[in-house]
Amino acid sequence: MKKQFILIVFTLLFAFGSNSQTKITLEDIWTKGTFSARGVAGFNSLKDGRYYCNLDDEQNLLRYAFASGRVVDTLVKISEVKKANGGLNLSISNFSFSEDESKLLIATETEAIYRHSSQSIFYVFDLQKKTLLNPIKDKVRYATLSSDASKLAFVRNNDLYYYDFRLNQEFRITKDGKDNEVINGATDWVYEEEFAIWKGFSWNGSGDKIAFYRFDESKVPQFEMTMYGTLYPKQDKFKYPKAGEANSLVNIFVYDLKTELITEIETGKETDIYLPRMQWTQNNEVLCVQRLNRLQNKLELLLADAKNGKSKVIYTETNPYYIDITDNLTFLNDGKSFVFTSERDGFNHIYLFDLNGKLQKQLTKGNYDVDEFLGVDAKNKMVYYSSSEVNAAERYIYAIGLNGKNKAKLSNGKGWHNAYFNSDYSFYLDVFSDINTPPVYALLNRKGETVRVLEDNNALREKLKSYQIAKASFAEMQNEVGDNMNYFSILPSQFDSTKKYPVLMYVYGGPGSQTVMNRWSGANYFWYQHLAQQGYIIVSVDGRGTGFKGEKFKKCTYLNLGKFEIEDQIYAAKQLAQLPFVDANRIGIWGWSFGGYMAGLGISKGNDVFKAAISVAPVTNWRYYDNIYTERFMRTPQENGKNYDDNSPMNHVEKIKGNYLIIHGTADDNVHFQNAVEMVDQMIKKGVRFDSEFYPNKNHGIGGSRVRLHLYERMTRFLVEKL
Q: For residue 171, what are the contacts with CB-CB under 8 A and spacing of at least 6?
């Protein structure tokens, strides 16, 4: 390991800038936008597969030919939208097409609710008639056009509605929606956060039926957050099921627009379950529902008849640990089969099944994980995906036949590739970067050949040459039990191997996560550069529990969340301490959320190696966190309470000898401020000295440029003073 690290030092010596180069300031990162990378605004592949569209700087929506990359015409002129809006400006930056591409659905005045959910004022622009409609005057959620663009479904005040453009009339589908009791057409807090599903309804392909969720959260315990800023602070109340507590009762229904009848879909007699996904199959009368038991180790696919609600199980998967929910289920247009991903052989791979759930073919194989299923080209019988096959810290795009043959790696350029395919899989947008290089957005054909570069961020790359940048590098080290762990490191500007430097370790460490990724990360990368200018070594290690190295590496932390993860961080820190250029008495650790939890364990359980730690928005006891996430990895406190407590930083505060800074937003709906309060209370009771910072009315992300500047100034000052 020591030889490996020294090798990195010598390769980086030539990359460091001279003293004459400009130093990076925190204002550059958080308020000036000095290092902001450009993206591709409004990129959408059009239905015919021949064209795509982009917004130009004036917000005109231009149509381009995939084959040539040239502008063909202007789909929407912003002047036309303004004229249709009575001469008033209207931004179309947040838009989506109707399926037939005759209308543009435009969201404006968007207001966030939780992490993903929001409500907006919606407009509909007719591309042929050049007319603009605002059928719903108030803010609503998840407005979605039917396939023929004749109707618009949406959620208002926890009830599901639709608007019929032909009749110029609004229709109410449900009538029992009530705040903190019943939700129709949307999901509750915990489904949104942990299953990443917030829109709770879906049109079928013919636009005559809507499938929707109903959540009865009346028995879910209520959480209250104090919101400051008025003479008498108000209480924000919402339902939040903590580990071991009651969940919402969830049902799925189908509304028939022709008959106005609502049919309940059969999902079984057991109600203490999850229904994390529903989707229409290629048959407009058949709905697929995913059913997951509360332990999250048994997943079933149900096919349901939308007319009578009757369902049958076509696929069952069990796992000794847990099963992750994804969006990788795809029903093929042959009407006879589907593609799905599973970790059934120890790695996440793609499988082909018939509609009876019988396995037809395992399409991908090997000691690597498929990261993202990108789609099926039905005409050419090819499947596209990205995977960690080359390296867990990198991603590349692949194609393989539906018969499991003719596998091809499409990506060039070492680093990280994301792909967004057009409708017929003849072209895709490739977003490529590495940890030291801003992203390049390029249009590629299905063979992986570049057709046109849409944005190369060359201006930012040129700008970086004038700043003091120390390139990050990647390597591996072994943990105490012999597992290889990926890590990246950034050495101080003007590195001198004869000197000793402090080390700051960055950790997240949650199940299936990664921090060691050879991709552009933006703001934190530049904060690390800012610290490197001041003589700090930055290191991040992905230990046991992290993802894309197979199921065994990821799930070995089951029932014991935090134990092996922090052991690997402590062991890695001890290995770093042996390097001749590391000051063994000045090693620190920091993290956010799960990483904040890890930093709290580091400064307590690792008190012999860590001098300082920063926990931002940390979980301090898994008893305080939501049940879907926590029980997936720990089961309930009633079943596994000892391991909840043994791995809680709150129960190890008396071991803290170093410098500890705990930070939290008071309006964190995700990891509640309660976590920080209870941790602080324990430290006070045990006579432990600590530093703290709180941010009024700020959620888990502690957002806002001025607030972020204050946060990073606070953390930087703490490190300079205490590490």
A: 161, 162, 163, 164
3-state secondary structure of 295: coil
What letter would DSSP give residue 481? T
Tokens representing residue 628 in the block:
């879907």
Q: How many helices (H) and strands (E) does the chain have?
A: 13, 43
Tokens of 222: 């209520």
- The Cβ-side half-sphere exposure at 139, using a 13 Å CA radius, reads 10
- At 92, the amino acid letter reads I
Instruction: Look at residue 551 and give its three-state secondary structure.
Output: helix
Name the helix (H) or strand (E) containing 568.
helix 563-577
Q: How far apart are CA 485 and CA 542, in angstroms?
A: 6
- DSSP conformation letters of 697-722: T--TT--SHHHHHHHHHHHHHHHHHH
Residue 476 neighbours by CB distance under 10 Å: 17
* pLDDT profile of the chain (723 residues), mean per 10: 38 45 95 95 89 92 91 95 94 93 95 94 96 95 96 98 97 98 98 98 97 98 97 97 98 98 98 98 97 98 98 98 97 95 98 96 98 95 97 98 97 96 95 98 95 96 95 97 98 94 98 98 96 97 98 98 98 98 98 98 98 98 98 98 97 98 98 98 98 98 96 98 97
Q: Which of 451, 516, 460 is nearest to 490 (CA)?
A: 516
Amino acid, res. 48: D
Query: If residue 634 lies in a helix (H) or strand (E), which one and from where to where?
Result: helix 627-634
Cβ pair 661, 691 in contact under 8 A: yes
The total of other beta-carbon atoms located within 10 Å of residue 160's CB is: 29
Q: What CA–CA distance (Å, rounded) separates 696 from 195? A: 28
Which tokens belong to 478?
Answer: 């072994």
Which pTM does this prediction carry?
0.95
Cβ-based neighbours of 47, under 8 Å, separated by 6 or more: 97, 99, 100, 101, 423
Domain boundaries, the chain: 2-36+467-722, 40-172, 358-456
Cα–Cα dist 322/555, whole Å: 8
Sign of CA dihedral 438, 440, 446, 449: negative
2-36+467-722 falls under which CATH superfamily?
A: Alpha/Beta hydrolase fold, catalytic domain (3.40.50.1820)
Query: By the 8 A CB rule, do 513 and 598 touch?
Result: no
DSSP per-residue string spanning 95-152: EEE-TTSSEEEEEEEEEE-SSS-EEEEEEEEETTTTEEE----S-BEEEEE-TTSSEE
φ and ψ at 674, to 5 degrees? -50, -40
